[in-house]
Amino acid sequence: MVWNIAHRGGAALLPENTLAAFKAARVQGCDGIELDVQLSRDGEVVVVHDFRLNPALCRDQDGQWIQGPPPLVKELTLAQLKRYDIGRAAPSSRYARAHPHVQWCDGERIPTLSEVIAAVAGDNFWLFVELKTTAIEPSVSGSAEALAEATLAVLRRHHYLERSILVGFDWRGLSYIMTHAPGVRCWFTTGAGAVEAATLAHIRKAGADGWFAQYHDATVTRLEEARALGLKLGAWTVNETADLARLAGLDALCTDRPDRLTRLTSHPQSAKDLR
User: Fold this and answer.
1) Rg from Cα positions in the chain
2) Does residue 190 fall inside a structural domain?
């Protein structure tokens, strides 16, 4: 059965990339969580999506959402990052309008990868860890190799490598992991756009275990080609019931609405009635 992977912990239900969201996904029976990691200025592996702090999600110690140009994550120490409350979106923000059903949780802070593992660790609970670096603007994210090495160190320290899958758009970090930690599962992520058969062949040749596709690109033809190459298959970010049902034959679906996927897989015959 397809794995139900809560995207950023289930970002349509609880504040994204927070311990509250990750714990809820575990309690609600998800197979795992997807999360984003970066390096702080002092070398801590922190769980946050945007390269710059999101002004719509970060309140300072005075309770005010960030004003002016937001700082880069890599410019702040862990202690500085922990000052921000990320449990509620600014009510007038585009983010809040796009996430109308989130149960906000005041007081949530940017967690470290270590804190996430401590909160959710379990024999059958998986981490999809996205290495957040960019080859397009490396100055905003820092070294892909440094992040990969630091992430490996955390996963090793917590004995969680066997239950982790490393993903990412910047394949440099994944290539580093496959070279320096053979056997660690790496699924290459592709962005939205027509994925060619040659791309899948390149992913397989690079030694990846799987293809992590934008769900529109997970067509019957491409999926058959990927299967023929022996690749595991995952799709992101699949939120609508019809798309979840169409792709339920994949190995993993990453979704902001893990509740919908749970209902779908529990009651497949009533999928048309799910909203």
Assistant:
1) 18
2) yes
